[in-house]
Amino acid sequence: MADLKRLYQEIILDHNKSPRNFGKISHPTHKAEGYNPLCGDRYTLYLQVEGGKVVDVGFEGAGCAISKSSASLMTSCLKGSTLKEAEDMFNNFHRLLMEDAKPEDFPGKQCKIVALQGVKEFPTRIKCATLVWHTMKSALEGKAEVSTE
Ligand code: ZN
Q1: Which of 140, 139, 115 is nearest to 44 (CA)?
Q2: Centroid of ligand 1 to alpha carbon of 85 (angstroms)
Q3: pLDDT tens digit string along 82-114?
Q4: Ligand 1 mean position, distance from CA 126 (Å)
Q5: For residue 81, how far is its CA from the centre of ligand 1 (angstroms)?
Q6: How far apart are the C-alpha atoms of 73 and 79, rounded to whole Å?
Q7: CA–CA separation, 86 vs 120, rounded Å?
Q8: Global confidence as pTM
Q9: Which of 1, 39, 64, 72 is the most exposed, fewest CB within 10 Å of its CB?
């Protein structure tokens, strides 16, 4: 339980309880669905991209605290970002969980997504954290669905 307590940090709990950017946006230009069969997390991500920038973003769906807080943190960070920044964020987040990258090594925008780095110690939950990120990438690449299977 001590481990779980460490994992479910305050930020994660907060974003799970009151997820930011929850709900469909009014003028999405990109959309994708993400599903993590290991845990049952399922989300739809909506993005409005204009002039190379993510001007609006929202998500719908349900899943565990980690997946939901990750979606909330990611969308908060994405809003107002350029597509290049979004790509950097994706790569940074991937490195944070898959490699030994330190948050301070991150180029560009600093976001609260580093709150999720504790998930690294729980390999079975990494897919919960990365699901919406892969969904974001698929949406921007024009793919409609993504599964972490
Ligand atoms: Zn999950």
Answers
A1: 139
A2: 26
A3: 999 999 889 888 888 888 777 666 655 657 787
A4: 8
A5: 26
A6: 10
A7: 21
A8: 0.89
A9: 1
